[in-house]
Amino acid sequence: MADTHVTAPTRFIDMDGDRFAYRRWGNTESGQPPLLLIQHFRGGMDNWDPLMTDGLAAGREVILYDGRGIASSTGTPRNRIEDMADDIAAFVRALGLAQIDLLGFSIGGMQAQDVALRHAEIVRKLLLLGTGPRGGTFGTDERVVPTAMRPEPVVDDFLFLFFGRSPAAVQAGRDFWERRHRRADQDTPSSPGAMQAQMEANLAWLAPVDPAAPLAHLSAITQPTFILNGIDDVMIPTVNAFNMAQVIPNAQLILYPDAGHGAQFQCPERFLGHAIQFLEEG
Questions:
Q1: In this structure, is residue 5 part of a structural domain?
Q2: Which end of the chain is more exposed for a tag (fewer CB within 10 A), N or C?
């Protein structure tokens, strides 16, 4: 039987003295490059939605990845997005891949932007979910940081941070929570040091490249770009998605109603339809 999200083995590749954990499975006959997924703040490979990843893997190879010092990967966690992006590019090359499609969620979307800018030749298409540009804005709800930094997140934390507020949105969040805990050999949780490093990276990301034209650097992202968010994101305000879509030359923007930061987890079937169409067109 073919591998799935809950059966694909965890593999490791050595780079610069550290071991990077990843899982790789899916359709190898599609003629499309593999799709590499970069996860949210402190998240690892088992923070993805199996419905989403297996749905994507039906049409291409999918690769889940833990960055340096994150979850099951070893090493000192990076505290700057550009260093994380360079690690991703080195990982892609270490796998012997000439080109990938790249999906980044939240802080993963920040890394994906920098991969597209710093290593443009390896990225065919770019998917940015629940994220914002360098020099963008972050949420102001005082509950966000303590909730996101809780040592052992519970379902109510994910409901607040990632999902809409209606009864249907809350139920979708609970359904996601059940799906993402199906794997027997769960990825190692990220350490407090990894969380601290990623928080430092987030804060450094707030500084624009050019204060006079804070988003101008995005015009250098020439890959076809898919931008998704919920209409009410308490983590990275939804206006960031709109701002990115205005500046990235070949971008399309989709906003889901009654959804928050993790719109793709709240509406996985809808997301699969949009994402697969984007990946397969052109």
A1: no
A2: N
Q: Label residue 155 exposed, middle or buried (CB < 10 Å: 0-12, 13-18, 19+).
A: middle
How many domains does one find in the chain? 1
Alpha carbon distance 170, 281 (integer Å): 33
pLDDT for position 141:
86
Q: Model confidence over 110-162: pLDDT tens digits?
A: 999 999 999 999 999 999 999 999 999 887 789 999 999 999 999 999 999 99
Check if the beta carbon of residue 123 is closer than 8 Å to that of residue 93: no
Domain membership flag for residue 2? no
Q: What is the CATH classification number for the domain harbouring 132? A: 3.40.50.1820
Token pair listed for 16: 């610069």
Beta bridge partners of 100: 123
Quick one: CA dihedral 175, 107, 115, 188, positive or negative? negative
Its domain, for residue 253, covers: 11-280
Q: Detail the DSSP E strand segments found in the chain.
A: 11-15, 18-26, 35-38, 61-65, 100-105, 123-129, 225-230, 251-256
Quote the distance between the C-alpha of residue 125 and its chain's center.
14
Cβ atoms 62, 178 nearer than 8 A:
no
Residue 28 lies in a domain: yes
pLDDT in tens, 109-118: 999 999 999 9
Q: For residue 7, count other CB atoms closer than 10 A to its CB.
A: 13
Question: Structure tokens of 138?
Answer: 């972050």
